[in-house]
């Protein structure tokens, strides 16, 4: 067979939209404000000084009233923009030394081209076609972009070899960060995928590529719009007719865009957004139930509401049920001043317990202890902070007893309530294929302690990136399958 064209190991994409442009514009101002507050402990004074860093930006984008309980805020037209255009794609191959790397960029002048770009990425993502076969299927308007991707060594031509054997065992497989792949006897459902993403860690010796799940995915679930869960280029590597379930967003904002509308603009044909507790959605032989996502809001007890009630990190948790398993994955859900996942767990217990597995980020996160250095956070953290500006005064405090995600204690509590037979950590980091998440060891130990306090019989499964937790017809109903997904192209 002739050489096929596929995404190279180490290739990464970044998409930038209108909301991001606003956040990039104000980030220096916000960074200056936070650093100054460490010294002054006077939010009003720090705001005044911070605004001087970018006076033109401050005047154009902010309403400022230092005598008000809300001393500064983005103007309404920026908090709730009427449109959020996709402005450009940036791409490179991070395996190439930086001094030799060719950074690529594709400016989006007219969003009408987005379905064609989607078609390009989807055809290349399969990892089974030659350059000529792909060109013959693409509109001519995106041929130049294909050549850019090749020139940047994001796409490479190489001999075809099967990337991985089909995943024959029913269960759940751990991909990078918050990505999961559920497999039943007939159906595959992918969660929060991140392939060839700018969020991935550079320098991984073995990673999971898009081609490694070819033929395994029948639908995609998205939990929420934080960028480590919501990556346009990854999604565009899948066919336009694949069903994608996303959170329902009552009012788009800087903090949470209209995810359904975005996917339709990219050319997706089957986008599903339903209310929490709606009737199950049937994908193959798997029932998908959409449940609430509470927690991970930029709220703390002292400042327990955003500037506007429509400013929310809208999200879903999902319960998947088929003949072989019942599984609930929680992503970064947890607690907020007015609600928590405990009440959802009680609903799950009454209808679906015992669970075969509960899957969650075990890491504790609090918005009053994220620190004052924004450089290690995604640009979307700026949007979150701007939804509740009073929170700037507490971002460098100790988390104390209040966290926004579950943490080990919350994971143990929900596992106990739902009578989960097993709980599994994820959504905390990128790591080499075949290795645990960076913080898995200490988080698992802490969660075991919390489970013991509650007398819960839940097992904590120490799975690694690329492992599966699968149904077994003999012996234990579910077992850990090491290295179920192996490194390929």
UniProtKB/TrEMBL annotation:
<dbReference type="InterPro" id="IPR036866">
    <property type="entry name" value="RibonucZ/Hydroxyglut_hydro"/>
</dbReference>
<protein>
    <submittedName>
        <fullName>MBL fold metallo-hydrolase</fullName>
    </submittedName>
</protein>
<dbReference type="Pfam" id="PF13483">
    <property type="entry name" value="Lactamase_B_3"/>
</dbReference>
